[in-house]
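Hello K.,

You asked for the raw outputs rather than the summary table, so here they are, unedited. I folded two proteins back to back in the same session to keep the settings identical. This is the first:
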Amino acid sequence: MKLSNTWFTALSENSEGHIITIMGRDELNEFMQSGKLKERVEITWKYQGDQKGMPTVELAEQMETVQEALRKAMEKDKLSILTSVYTGGGEKIWVYYTRTTRVFGERLNEALAGFDLLPITIYSEIDPDWEEYQDMYEMKEWSVD
């Protein structure tokens, strides 16, 4: 299975009226149908946003550096795949599908070891049908260029 790096961007709104930017990964059907990545892990970074609920430029750059460190560690052997990223409303959420949360946690710690303590929380659940991904993927029809 080949992991694409094709993404789309869509906009949504949360209950407080803040714009949420959704980056969704495309071309993941083979991974979804393989049944190998049954666990979903969500990493949430809450922050003090600007008046629109978005991070400052400096914080956005720091988050991008963290995101790339995580992707490199998680996707090197397709143990885990970053499927979507939500930004806005005072939080950034990275959604991964993984084979095992135990190894995911080990790699997470290794990937973030070089950073100062980050204000993140981690949530996981079994999602063999990729329900969160499929819900997010419906946003593709409203993607922006």
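The second followed immediately with the same parameters:
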Amino acid sequence: MFSGIIAAVGRITHLTERQAGFRLHVDGGTLDLSNVVLGDSIAHNGVCLTVVGIEGNRFMVDVSPETLSCTVGLDAPGPVNLEKALRMMDVIGGHLVSGHVDGVGEVLRFDPVGDNRLLEIRAPGELAKFIARKGSITVNGTSLTTNEVNGNVFTINLIPHTLENTTLCHLAAGSRVNLEIDLIARYCERLLSYESSGRHLVD
């Protein structure tokens, strides 16, 4: 589990082709790797990946064809938002995030509003029912709050701190982003759909 609070902006330096998928070689930047061991989870642009190698402040993770087919930002060198998995004693500054991307959205607007930025995203249609005004959503691993929702289009206000400490500052109209819906919305929908079908969770 993660909280959507980005710990550092790293960089995929290069990719090594494997029989299936790629091995990503990542420069962790300012991410503290002193307590990271093989097998630990680190979110990359919102995608939970397993550490398979560590060399100083660099580490390696493997990404499968399935993951590459339903996410963006992991198939070429470039900057990535990084967050280590939560520990039980950690403060959850954002919201509970699983690191499993639900869909890829498209940026429609990225307009300056004073020092802030107005970010407008079109989500896949099947995710629309999970996105609520003033609710939580994860964009490229970053926990954010929606301002307005119209169908499957929603807006977010990005403050300077977020712009300075994540890769979201590089967005533009036409950019594609990883989206993860709020876990609470996911389970509420499951409960409601199960009950409306006339079945019972416990027989």
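The domain at 8-84 is CATH 2.40.30.20 (Elongation Factor Tu (Ef-tu); domain 3).

Happy to rerun anything if the numbers look odd on your end.

Regards,
P.
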